# Entry
Amino acid sequence: MTAPTAPSEFPGAPGDDDRDRSLDIAVTGMAGRFPGAGDIGSWWQALLRGEILTSRLDRERLLADGEPASVLDDPDYVPVRGLLEDADRFDHELFGISPREGELMDPQHRLMLEAAWTALEDAGCDPLTESRTTGVYASASSSAYLRAMLTSNTLDAAGIEEALRANEPDYMATRIAYRLGLTGPAMSVLTACSSSLVAVHLAVQALLAGECEQAVVVAAAVDFPQAGHVHLPGGILSASGECRPFDASADGALAGSGVVAVVLRPAEEALADGADPYGLIIGSAVNNDGSAKAGYQAPSAAGQEAVIRSALAAADIGADTLGYLEAHATGTRVGDPIEWSAASSVLRGLGAEPGRIAVGAVKANIGHLDAASGLVSLIKTLLVVREGRIPPVAGFSSLNPLLETDGSPLYVPTGLLDWAGPGPRRAGVSSFGIGGTNAHVVVEQPPVRPRTPQPADGGPQDRVLMLSAGGPEALARTARLLADRLPALDSTAVGDIAHTLAAGRARLPHRTAVAGRTHRELADRLRAAADSPSYAGRPAPVVFLLPGQGSQRPGMALPFQDALPGFGAALEGCLAHFEPALVARLRPALFDPAFPAGELARTELAQPALFCVEYAAATALTGLGLAPVALAGHSLGELTAAALAGVLPLGDAAALVALRGRAMQACPPGAMLSLAVGEAEARELAREFAAAGGPLLELAAVNTADSSVLAGPADAVDAFRAWLGDRERTRRLQTSHAFHTSMIDPAVRELGRAVAEVALGRPRLPYLSNVTGTLVAAGSEVEAGSFAEQARSTVRFAAGLAAIAEAHPDAVAIEVGPGRALSGMAEAAGLTAVALAAGRTDRPGEETLVALAGLWSAGLPLDAVALAGPGRPVHLPGHAFAGPRLVAPAARTGAAHPAARTVSGPGGGVGRTAAAAPAAPAASATPATPATPPAPPAPSAPTPATPGEAVSARWTELLGRPELSPESDFFDLGGDSLLVVRLARRLGDDLGVRVPVRALITGPTLAQQTALVESLITAGERR
# Structure
């Protein structure tokens, strides 16, 4: 085996032709579930090993699935197929589909919804908010599920209409477009076995014509039930139970089940956006054999040659640049030689040298996926050209002697090969349908994508990974899938992973988030977080907590600078309003952890530093999407709150803060002592100390019901603390003065004169007055003297938090500054509190990221993309689907009915299913027995006793939801306009009243509809 060649740089390798790259289409996302493999990654590894993934089904399973014993006992029955496990599961809640509607839907349509979602995620697109005009091109095999329901004789007229709407192919593309909000063309494409590759061609043409900016091509083939087949002599289904394309022992095809999807975009646009394509589609063509062949179901060499020639002409390349061909290759002794001959002839005529092009045949691995087979072949071929590895044809032993090998460019690989020859790697994909519609697509390896640049300092940076899912179990599975994948992505920048999860995933209600620097660290944290998700329900109101002096610490701006988008710009904007000399002192204090703490404790520096950090952080948070309902600033923090609320213009606020710091610094020194007691007890202790001969300390703050602050001269505070001994818990605060006492009176007078000259605005949102312990209402007039008075008066923070908790009991209080002192106070008031920079770890930026991600996980409207930081889309595991098993009772009943199954016909491709048809009745001279009349529809449930019971019963019937509450909404639970019409009729039959449909629509809750029918009965609105 030769070493793989280096990928070519876009737009081509040296020596390549000068073809027009503006028509290339990038495959930006893929998804698939296959027999024996639940995803593309594990499937590809199985292909590289040459594994056969079809299954031999046991009798008990086949009987349980509805295969008649008479069919199983046929000596020609072959119990083998490419089996798709869990094909009956559907995550209907994620798509807003009721259990009843989910049961009625063809499993193929359900699986296509999930595959389209996964492919969009793989392309780095949020499936629910994708802004590009996106088309949908869908193909599926004939619905055995629908036939089973229609032959069950259990559906009334309305039930038949529902079944048709949930299963017929007309609706499979438009349902995907509706459920995902995609606004481009939505088309069902059906050309038998070539359907999905024809759909790719149509999608490419739509992209080139500008009909859409992006396209999802999705296809499924799932029989119901998934069973074996009866081999018919002369038919195309294998007697041995093995599919051996191009092999001397080939005896036919096998049916397989699966679902696949790809996302397509114009290559130039996708690459400009930083996409990581699996490959490029550089040419495609579709034609039909016409009548020039042996029969309708027979293949045509001329038609196959023509479509390959047209696709190569569209690609503007010669066949000498191809190195691989994924053939249609059903494993029939007649079909394979025709395809081999046609491909050899056209490729040789267009310059391909003998023995240059390896032939692939994925049907040997998984069976024939009918309408999905062409798209399966395309995905395999894209992986071949992307990875430069050619899998063997599974089970191949020796070449079919009917194949013309002399001078043929084709050869069958018998082992795993590395791609040989110069780049760019190019390949063709063929798909031919019964009836003669042929498709061929030419693909090329993707261009090399430059590595993401490393951070300027070269060191790892903390990034946050945010995941969400439709339910807690799905979230746990999704997190574990990503955790298992991360170690293998060590060459992928963590920033790209974080960005992809934020920008390319839907915002679903169950969430978790972790932060870290390395792939392994993040993987370990994801596993730990998998089982403890948050529920992002209705966003809680937000309150900003703004701390005062004492919380400062050197380098306190660093965590916000590292983790909070927008902080740096806001900080610079704030610093611009201070004197240059002060700014020169502030910068090292804010960003250098080694800055002297004693120097920062000086009031003239501490207060401007805290103000700048708080103002910038709060501004950045609002830029991320948080809109506080109130601001609660402690001491100095009230000035920050007033500036944020629009009372103090920023320039005036900065000048006032600087003056406040200087004026307080000039006051006599003092000390402050926090006590774990309430206001009354603190005052009593101060009086007892004074009675014992000590000076009377003043009450500076009441922070909680059990926390107060006394202040005064430093020696008096020390003496008081010694006098208390172990009677009460105390803590000396990091202040140089006795703030909020008479010792600050000189500063208060100076502040009063300064603030009197400031033109105050009216607050845009409520903020806490430290003096009164109440909220200053939005729009109210603010007295200028209050900002001087609050520097002297007792801080009544406890009362203010109580007022906030009463007004917003479910609020989340975010401490917007260093430390978590105010968070504890908010928790004591009954609020949920989050500290952004508690300072409890040696990685403060990570701590802030975790706090912000926790807010996102709780459902707060933070901009996840901004929080994740810059990056490019990369391919990551998506949402882990594993919904409940849904099978309609009518489908179970009709699954074994002979008319529910069809038989594949002869020719170059497999028909829709692979089971026996009923034997024709023997000729008889006696009149035929009249057909058994169909069984009557299942009787309705007894008429409920009350209007409320009637409405509940009909909701359960139509939606499949037994658990209802008065607030349940018919449309939120999956109802639609057609079901409302049926509901109105059902209720009319039950209760003998005319129920207006419009009223049911405008009053969609269970309580509203119950009240409606009760009022109709009371009013005597009889039918």
Notes: DSSP finds 37 helices and 31 strands in the chain. The chain has four domains: 23-444, 463-535, 542-664+761-839, 947-1019. The longest helix spans residues 603-624.
